[in-house]
Design brief:
Chemotaxis Receptor Methyltransferase Cher, domain 1, 41% helix, alpha/beta, binds S-adenosylmethionine, seven-stranded mixed β-sheet, three-stranded antiparallel β-sheet, 282 residues, 10 strands
Length: 282
């Protein structure tokens, strides 16, 4: 890639980008994504004033802030409210078993711009009959740009067009004036969620304790099987013994049957084998 383009982008540059993204975010970029990578990263070259990918990548390797911008530019953040909607009644039925008896803790582990975490919160508010402080939702992502949008909870009105109008009325405020054409999630819904940056690839995750459910949807597809396994292994001690793990529609964890068993519909529970190991470890 070179002639006719603003910046030269050699196969070596592309290989270096792939290696860096794999090392820092676990993301295995397909070799056919060269043009996509060029277009996303050339914006970073323009913003930083570099004229070659070689110089830009050397900066990104050394500078944590630019590495964050590099990662943000290359993540795929596609999401929507109630995406793969069959999961939400399963979550509600599961939590209903102990709702009101003890606090509930949920983790949305690749939350992108927030729609998934807000869908979990709406499901819980429906179950409890109101916004509730009994349910805490942790929502994390590696990408700081999407987290900023998620925190704001402001979306173009088209994003909620397919939702039930009664649900929209209950959970969203319609913008007017400068906010015309946008909707904002209600504060009380927002208050059920804590947004934070977390790289699933990191060795140490700060949170402890037992989640009743972990949503890890449409992110594992970017990781190779070994990376997926490592992450799945770390989910086990963070889940309640009967906790649920939700995966994306095109993901399966059959390479980790010793850790998770499928309940169908891309929902998983800790396998008996992993449970025994957990108990032995105390
Ligand atoms: C396609 S979106 C999926 C969003 C949502 N879970 C859903 O299913 O609609 C994938 C998200 O994974 C995030 N991601 C990619 N690599 C990650 C990593 N190493 N740690 C945490 N999040 C990551 C991306 O930033 C992106 O927001």
């Amino acid at each position: 890639m070179g002639s006719g383009r603003e910046f030269a982008f050699t196969d070596q540059d592309f290989a270096r980008v792939r290696k860096l993204l794999y090392e820092r975010a676990g993301i295995s970029l397909s070799p056919i994504k060269k043009y996509l990578v060029y277009s996303r990263l050339s914006r970073r070259l323009r913003a930083t004033g570099f004229t070659t990918f070689e110089a830009y990548l050397s900066r990104a390797e050394k500078d944590a802030e630019e590495m964050e911008a590099f990662t943000n530019a290359l993540t795929t953040n596609l999401t929507s409210f109630f995406r793969e909607e069959h999961h939400f009644p399963i979550l509600a039925d599961h939590v209903a078993k102990f709702a009101g008896k003890r606090p509930v803790s949920l983790w949305c582990s690749a939350c992108s711009t927030g729609e998934e975490a807000y869908s979990m919160a709406m499901t819980m508010a429906d179950l409890y009959g109101d916004f509730t402080s009994q349910v805490k939702i942790l929502a994390t992502d590696i990408d700081t740009n999407v987290l900023e949008q998620a925190e704001k909870g402001v979306y173009p009105i088209e994003r909620i067009e397919k939702l039930d109008p009664a649900l929209v009325k209950r959970f969203f405020l319609r913008g007017s004036g400068k906010m015309q054409g946008q909707v904002m999630v209600k504060r009380a819904l927002r208050d059920m969620i804590t947004f934070d940056r977390l790289n699933l690839l990191d060795d140490n995750w700060p949170m402890k304790g037992h989640f009743d459910a972990i949503f890890c949807r449409n992110v594992m597809i970017y990781f190779d099987k070994a990376t997926q396994y490592r992450i799945l292994k770390k989910f086990v001690p963070l889940l309640q013994p009967d906790g649920l793990l939700f995966a994306g529609h095109s993901e399966n964890f059959y390479q980790a049957v010793d850790l998770f068993k499928s309940l169908g519909k891309t929902v998983y529970r800790i396998s008996p084998e992993a449970m025994r190991q957990q108990e032995r470890a105390g």
